[in-house]
Amino acid sequence: MPFDHEELDALDQIKWADRIWEILLFFLGLGFGVLVIWFGVQEFNQYRNWNEYIETDAIIQTLSVREVEGTRQDKGMIVKTVHWQVESDYVYQAEEKEYSSIAVLEIGYSDKEAQELQKNYNLGDKFSIWYHPGEPDKPIVEDRKPSIYQSIFFIVLGIIVIVFLIFMVWPDSKNKNKNL
């Protein structure tokens, strides 16, 4: 069907604009659903491969406290947030090679609190990290075995979002196309 602006009256133009917004929102929702499924699959792969991860010691090279600004929404308003992170540059051995990375060791809600938390660490202290032999340059700092339930939750949530979008848009699109 050729799209000629001159032949359309105002009501038809509104219908077309409405339809374009629906299509745009459908694809945004579809993208969100696919992204959630992708995240669930990544979690599942990490869960499935966790037994392949190797624990090793990381050695603190530097310590610092850094102020981090952000925003959050509170009662419909955007609010500025600030917290302080105790960060460490560290080195570790993996696959007979030395690697370095940065870790957030603690989070404080004031500079004074973060400075106190930093006192729990010293240069040369060791802490555990995990790495996969296939990607030794991407360590995991936290001791968190991935959860199969979290993986399943995200995959199912993504599927529900996509199915919901299809059932909400599909029948409605047949009726709207008849009216155009």
Summarize the structure.
This protein is α+β, with helices and mostly antiparallel strands and 180 residues long.
Order of helices and strands: HEEEHEEH
Fraction of residues in helix: 40-55%
Q: Which residue ranges are poorly predicted, with pLDDT under 50 across at least 5 consecutive positions? A: none
Major beta sheet, strand line-up: 3-2-1-4-5
- For the record, give the distance between the C-alpha atoms at the N and C termini, rounded to a whole number: 10 Å
What radius of gyration results from the CA coordinates?
A: 25 Å
What coarse outline follows from CA principal-axis ratios?
flat
How many alpha or pi helices? Answer: 3
The mean pLDDT is: 85
Classify the secondary structure makeup into a structural class.
alpha+beta
Give the biggest sheet: 5 strands, antiparallel
Total number of beta strands = 5
State which percent range the strand residues make up. Answer: 35-45%
Describe the structure.
- It is a single chain.
- With 180 residues, the chain is an alpha+beta fold.
- Helix content is 44%, strand content 36%.
- It is built from three helices and five strands; from the N terminus they run αβββαββα.
- It has a five-stranded antiparallel β-sheet, with helices on one face.
- Helix 1 packs antiparallel against helix 3.
- The longest helix has 40 residues.
- The model has no long low-confidence stretch (mean pLDDT 85).
